[in-house]
Every structure is written in structure tokens, then in C-alpha cells.
Amino acid sequence: MVKSLLLVGVGGQGTILVSRILSEGLVNEGYDVKMSEIHGMAQRGGSVTTQIKFGEKVHSPSINVGEADVLVAFEKVEAARHITQLKKGGTLIVNDEEMYPLPVLAGLEEYPMGVIEELNDKIENIKVINARHIAEELGETRAQNIVMLGTTVKALGIENIDWIKLIKENLPNRVHEVNVKAFEQGLNL
């Protein structure tokens, strides 16, 4: 059986790093894994989307409308933007984070209000987390993505993989301790 995982966020949030760690772990576990990345002006705060499919035999990473088993949104408006790709009964993991795009920062548009409430009304299986708050409590705001990794691993039921080793292999030594704690916090949510 093939599982589909869609990760969405804004450039600079570490979405692609999490996707690579997940893919590497799944490959190490013996799954056939296909991954694709889309960077929409990612370095300037644009959308970042990663599609991952894994299973016994995967032919393409493409996730169509209504096909994602799990949608992981590192930013809440990105969750709303991509919600149609989540299958009925699928799981939405959303970081209660606001990243303002350029038109909002320039005062040309307003950031939408009530996004989480709207998602709660539409999605039965939703997990809203405040990864920024958890990361700040650990003393490293940039560890939000690893909190999200932990929550995603738990949602997929793939805790048996050595994620700590993969985190250490993909991050500098100086941030190992805080990111291991961030992962564990996400896993326990």
C-alpha cells in the first residue's frame, strides 16, 4: 500500500529539510520512496511544497486532489491553500504560525483571520500545534521544523526508524541537542 504525504510551508521554515530527513528514513527502512519539491520564490518567503509517496512500489511522487493521506502545513494559510489535496479521512497537521507574504507586509492585503477555525470545521482529523512556542521554550526558534517532524512521524506510525541518527546526520553538531529535544516534543504531542 502506498502512502502519500504532502508538506507545505513558506521559504525558510525548513520544510525541505524535514522532507529529506523523512525520505531518507523511509528509504533506510526499505520503502520505495519518490519525492518532489516545488519552490515558489522560496528564498523570498514564497510557498514551498514537497510531495512524498512511499510504499512497496511507487511510480510517481505526484499527489492529486483528494489523494494525500497526511498534509503537514508549516504555516496555516498554506494549509488552507492545499487542503483540497487531503483525502477524505486524511490527517492534517498544521502549525499555528503566521508568515506574512509581501503584499501583507506592504499593506496591500490583509492576512486572513479565522484560518484554524475554518480548517477545524472542514477536517475531522486535525492536529493543530504551536511549534514556534515549543521551539522557543527549547531556546531555538529554528527547531520548529523538527517539532513538526516528530508530530509527522507519530501521525504516520513510523516511530521505529532511527530518526535521532538522521537528525544528527542532517544538522550541525552545535544544534543536535536542541533538535533532538524538539523532535521528542513533537513526537509526544
TrEMBL record:
Which residue intervals define the domain Pyruvate/ketoisovalerate oxidoreductase catalytic in the entry? 11-187
Transmembrane portions of the chain: none
Question: Superkingdom of this entry's organism?
Answer: Bacteria
The name of this protein is Indolepyruvate oxidoreductase subunit beta
Q: Which species is the source of this protein?
A: Tissierella simiarum
Instruction: List the lineage, top down.
Output: Bacteria, Bacillati, Bacillota, Tissierellia, Tissierellales
